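Chapter review: from sequence to fold.
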Amino acid sequence: MTYEVIIPAAGQGKRMGLGKNKLFLELDRLPVFIHTLIVFENDPNCNGIWLVVSSDDKKEMNELVKKYAITKVIALIEGGTERQHSVYHAVKELSDDTIVLVHDAARPFIQTEQIARLTKVAVESGAAVLAVPIKDTIKKVDGDLVVETVERSSLWAIQTPQAFRVSILKEAHEKAIVDTYIGTDDASLVERLGQAVQIVEGNYDNIKLTTPEDLYFAEAIVAKRKENIADSNK
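The token string follows.
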């Protein structure tokens, strides 16, 4: 199942506390966003990458794309004021009958097996998201007081990629523009159309690098994957 992917990379990464785009941080000697691009570069089902960037970062990101021989980047598109607007800048460039994935540049540990399962479901249903079951106890609070303990059996933590038929995602974004609605993710915009969004179980390694603490987990995942490769080569 072939697809194209939009990778928003225009955020400021303020929670990382760096004073620069966190995607330039090096992880195992490569910038974070290059790790992410390499996954799609090496996936034979990926027909192209739309990288959405800020005007300040565009030159440096373009240079790094060339340096690391990422050949599937169709264009570097300048982002908008919100992530949602950035995604739409790319969505409107796509053909309506295409399957498009939207994936956070700061999730470098996505795997092609998960992408393949997600894409297959999106082809069948029109909209699908990767997610993992919530493991922690979740409590609803008011101020600093617990109001209730939420039943977690039906709660999932949503990840990316999220996959859609382009015609559906375009309609969802255009309705959001008319309604001046800002959603938490692309799936939330699609849900407003009454379109069912299918859950595809993902992997707990598919973390988003948001705060400095996440880098410790990222380094552990890198080490674990290297160890698994070494064991498989014995």
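Two observations follow directly from the output. The chain has one domain: 3-127+160-233. The first strand starts at residue 3 and ends at 8.
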